[in-house]
Write a structure and sequence with these properties.
By secondary structure, the protein is α/β, with parallel strands linked by helices. Helix content is 44%, strand content 21%. It has a seven-stranded mixed sheet with strand order 3-2-1-4-5-7-6, with helices on both faces. Strand 4, helix 5 and strand 5 form a beta-alpha-beta unit. The relative contact order is 0.16. Bound molecules: S-adenosylmethionine. S-adenosylmethionine binds next to helix 1, helix 3 and strand 2.
Length: 240
C-alpha cells in the first residue's frame, strides 16, 4: 500500500500530495533549508554537476515545486529550463521567485504530471528531479514517461532522500527524522501531516540498488547511484 499524507481522508496519493504541497507552499523554501541545515543546497549543486559534460540545452525539471533545482540547472548554461508540477500553490511561489530574480525568460514553470507529460517523445537533453520521485503515485509510470521525453543519448539525474545504513549515524538520523523534524515542520507549516508524511515516505521508498533496478526496468542504461552525506540522500543517474 502506498504512503499518503492524510490517512483519514479520501483521495488518491496524487490528489493528496498536490493538496499537501499547496498547503505548505508558503513555508516550503524556508523549511527545506532550515530542516536540512542548508545541506540541500550543496546536494542540488552536486546533482547538477553530473550533467556538466553533457552541456544540455533543453532541460526538463520534473516536480519542480518552487523551482530551486531549475534555478541550479542554469549553471549548465542551457537555452531553457522547463519545470512541471502538479501543485499550483508551489508553482505560484516559484513563478513569483523567477520574476523577482529576472529568470522568467529562461525558466518556464508549467502545470504538468510526471505520469502523463504534455511533451513529445525525445524532446529534452536532460530530465532532472529533486525530491520528487518519492511522491509519485505510480513510480514506474512516472520514470517511464521521463524516459519517453528524453532524447536518445540524453541523461536523467534524480536527487532523492535515502536511508543511511551505518551505526550510529543511522540511529541519530532516525531519531531526528521521526521525532524532531515532524514537530518543527508540522508546527511551522501549520499542516499536521506534511512533515510526518516525509519520513514515512522515505522509509517506504525503494532506495539505492532497488531504485537502480527500476530505472533499468523502464529502459535507462549506465545507471549509477552516488550516496551523499552518509546516505541521507542519493543522486541517481541514467542514460537513454
Ligand atoms: C518535495 S517537493 C520538491 C520540489 C523541488 N524539486 C525541490 O527540490 O525543492 C516535491 C514536489 O513534487 C511534486 N509532485 C508530486 N507528484 C508529482 C507528479 N506526479 N508530477 C509532477 N509533480 C509532482 C509536488 O507537487 C511537489 O511540488
Amino acid at each position: 500500500m502506498s504512503v499518503v499524507p492524510y490517512k483519514d481522508k479520501q483521495g488518491s496519493k496524487k490528489e493528496q500530495v498536490a493538496t499537501m504541497f499547496d498547503n505548505i507552499s508558503g513555508n516550503y523554501d524556508f523549511l527545506n533549508h532550515f530542516l536540512s541545515l542548508g545541506i540541500d543546497i550543496a546536494w542540488r549543486k552536486k546533482a547538477i554537476r553530473q550533467l556538466k559534460d553533457l552541456q544540455p540545452k533543453q532541460i526538463l525539471d520534473i516536480a519542480t515545486g518552487t523551482g530551486d533545482f531549475a534555478i541550479e540547472a542554469l549553471a549548465l548554461k542551457p537555452d531553457k529550463v522547463t519545470g512541471v508540477d502538479i501543485s499550483e500553490g508551489m508553482l505560484a511561489v516559484g513563478r513569483q521567485k523567477m520574476k523577482k530574480k529576472g529568470l522568467d525568460q529562461k525558466i518556464e514553470l508549467l502545470s504538468g504530471d510526471s505520469e502523463a507529460l504534455q511533451f513529445e517523445d525525445n524532446k529534452f537533453d536532460a530530465v532532472i528531479v529533486s525530491f520528487g520521485v518519492r511522491n509519485f503515485e505510480h513510480l514506474e509510470k512516472g520514470l517511464a514517461d521521463m524516459y519517453r521525453v528524453l532524447k536518445p543519448g540524453g541523461r536523467t539525474v534524480i536527487l532523492e532522500f535515502s536511508k543511511p545504513k551505518s551505526f550510529p549515524f543511522k540511529q541519530l538520523y532516525h531519531f531526528y527524522f521521526k521525532w524532531i523534524l515532524p514537530k518543527i515542520g508540522n508546527t511551522i507549516s501549520k499542516d499536521q501531516a506534511a512533515y510526518t508524511y516525509l519520513p514515512e515516505s522515505v522509509r517506504a521508498f525503494p532506495d539505492g540498488q532497488n531504485f537502480l533496478e527500476i530505472l533499468e526496468k523502464v529502459g535507462f542504461k549506465n545507471t549509477q547511484c552516488k550516496p551523499l552525506t552518509l546516505g541521507i540522500s542519493s543522486i541517481y543517474i541514467g542514460t537513454k
